[in-house]
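explain this:
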Amino acid sequence: MRTTFFGALLACLCLACSEQHDHHGKTPLVELEGNFLYHEDLQSVLPNGLSKDDSLLFAEHYIRNWAEEILLFNKARNNIPDNAEIDKLVEHYRKALIMHTYQQALIHQQLSATISDTEMETYYEKNQALFKVERPLMKGLFIKVPLKAPQLANVRRWYKNPAQDAVEHLEKYSLQHAVKYEYFYDKWIPVSEMLDLMPLNVKDTDGYFQNHRHIELKDTAYCYFLNVADYRAIGDQEPYESARNQVKDILMNMKQVEFMKQVKDDLYQRAVRQDRIKYY
């Protein structure tokens, strides 16, 4: 039945559409109250890889939705008493969209996206109150090894020591024996990432990690070793390394605002010089 329906639409499309309309080379498929759905438009939204039956089903649903939207819009238009207000809102949105599109193109073409490290560090130092930790962060080292792994006594000694030689011993050891090894003395990571790697359940995360820097746990299969070299609780000063991307976004936004302010001022001053602004 679907094949018959869709086939009939295609076969009768020329009869269903008025020859008085200029379809700009497109093939009319359905007409409803002067609105046309074209075969090319349907093809452009038709998902790839559908079977013949699924394609017909999709087409029927698409045509039905298209028709319902037209009917509802026409019904609503005829029953809304004040279209002038809607026209005003549409025009306002159109102007805003045009200006936004132009501004984004102008910014992309003429404003450098480069923010120097010096600019970012200076802004961060002057505005530290803006950057507070929203989720706990830590630096450190983590290693997970089987319960029966060799040299566990050495692992207990190495993981607590951030010195280069201890780290090198642990890295070599981890290549052969570790199930998981994470070196993050040089970067801040969310504490939640570490909690996902080990069987540690604590309610007061901040209190626990501020008082426990060398953590050893085990379950039925593995030993877990975590050295917390540094820790920042919620509300603490956010480290620059962690806040760096946010600082960059803020500075970029400030540059864009200043740039567009200058563009608008230049346009205004030019209009004044050319006597294009008339006051009554």
